[in-house]
Amino acid sequence: MTFQAFEPIQLGKNLKLKNRIVMPAMARWKCKSDCVPHEGYLKYYKRRAKHNVGLIISEGTHVDNTHSYAIHTGYEGRLTNEKQKKAFEGIVKAVHKYGGKFIPQLWHCGENATNPISVVSSSQRIKQMDRNDMDQVRDAFVNSAVLAKEAGCDGVEIHGANGYLLSNFMSKRNVRNDEYGGTIVNRMRFPLEVVRAVRQAVGEQFPILYRTSQWSVSNYNEIKWDNVEELKIWCDGLKEAGVDIIDVSTHKCYKLEFVGQGKQEESHTLAGWIKKLSGLPVIAVGGVSYTQTVAYNWGSSGKTSIENPERCLKLIEKGECDLLAVGRALIANYDWVDKVQRGDWEKLKPYSRKTLDELF
Ligand SMILES: Cc1cc2nc3c(=O)[nH]c(=O)nc-3n(C[C@H](O)[C@H](O)[C@H](O)COP(=O)(O)O)c2cc1C
């Protein structure tokens, strides 16, 4: 199949990819208590680089070892000390050997952590973040980003999506009555402080990706931006703070956003709107080559059914995105790029929760 998706691209200041297919962040929960992404992870990422994935984003990787607020299950990788940095160094080298690029996703779980902390506390059990907590979180992101740069990674992705800490600042549920809650400008203030601090620490040339979404794990239908005008304020903020590429997390990458609002003459996907409003390169994700969304696999042990990825691949030609991320289908098919490029998409394997048992 001939698509721009399989052609090289130069992105941002310093990122040249051999094609536009991305493996998005997917937690695999296979680390031991030292939270070091071990040899099994190295082989897993290397296999995908060897089989022509242009950009690999690591599983959600924790930024904090000063307290446990960041941690999801404790079995994800972390990037907080020299031993973990060495492991990332090895992975980057292995991926580079095959012409791939590797970027860790930096993750703080917030209210979804084992020991939760919240933007706005809804119960006695969960502490509401104060300024001191915010400083710690910001510094933790900076610390991990610097370690990623020292490890030779090709950039960092800040996880600001899907209902974890930074995305919860963006939520309309964030009714804090200080300058970090309420209006859209207030809600985006802390995530942008994190981006600016990371940018200052890693310098102008090091690519920063930012993952953003409407939805969250606690509410798949959550809306953070009601309209294009609000989204524009967020896009301007990300750009001004120093983000190079925006990774737009949706369940179906081809679904149109802000439909039926009457004012828009154009129709776009969420990634398409963000690309247009920010002027930055964007990654689209969600439902490539599978009929069911990721929500189906979280709620069921059933298998996905395969579908032709053509309409998703064409989003690049249509100018809706620059890169296309393939999630579950790349866990189930390390050779996704090779199969699809040859026109053999019907030979793709389905995905089910069982696929996660092995790190292959
Ligand atoms: C097992 C699993 C783990 C995931 N972990 C993360 C994560 O750590 N960080 C993140 O931003 N998204 C995570 N996601 C979401 C994916 O990055 C992706 O956006 C989603 O699966 C939709 O793409 P798909 O339909 O191609 O699977 C995860 C998804 C799966 C299936």
UniProtKB/TrEMBL annotation:
SUPFAM superfamilies: FMN-linked oxidoreductases (SSF51395). The keyword Translocase does not apply. Pfam families: Oxidored_FMN. The keyword Flavoprotein applies. Keywords: Flavoprotein, Oxidoreductase. It comes from the Eukaryota. Residues 6-343 form the NADH:flavin oxidoreductase/NADH oxidase N-terminal domain. This is Binding oxidoreductase.
